[in-house]
């Protein structure tokens, strides 16, 4: 068994799915999580907030389907667990996203494993 010193980083990974919690919405960017007083709200769903056009464009592949769904249920916003689960289902339906690999301890892993 490998031994690591306390505080040693042993794994870094990008999240497969994430949401910005309701309590932080409007205070942090939904893509990069930076806090700002000057966030721009998505003009379509009016739920998510972004630092600017760059973050909004980067988030668009994951937000596109969700955005249309949020627009349909407006002004209601689903609870955090529901939004998270919906994002997960949307991502899993996109087979190219589910098949993306990432090295983990010397092996290529994907969410589709």
Automatic annotation (TrEMBL):
Gene3D superfamilies: 6.10.140.2220. Residues 29-67 form the MYND-type domain. Keywords: Metal-binding, Methyltransferase, Transferase, Zinc, Zinc-finger. Pfam families: zf-MYND. GO terms for molecular function: methyltransferase activity; zinc ion binding. It comes from the Eukaryota. One of its GO terms (biological process) is methylation. InterPro entries: H3K4_H4K5_MeTrfase, Znf_MYND. SUPFAM superfamilies: HIT/MYND zinc finger-like. GO terms for cellular component: nucleus. This is Putative histone-lysine n-methyltransferase smyd3-like protein.
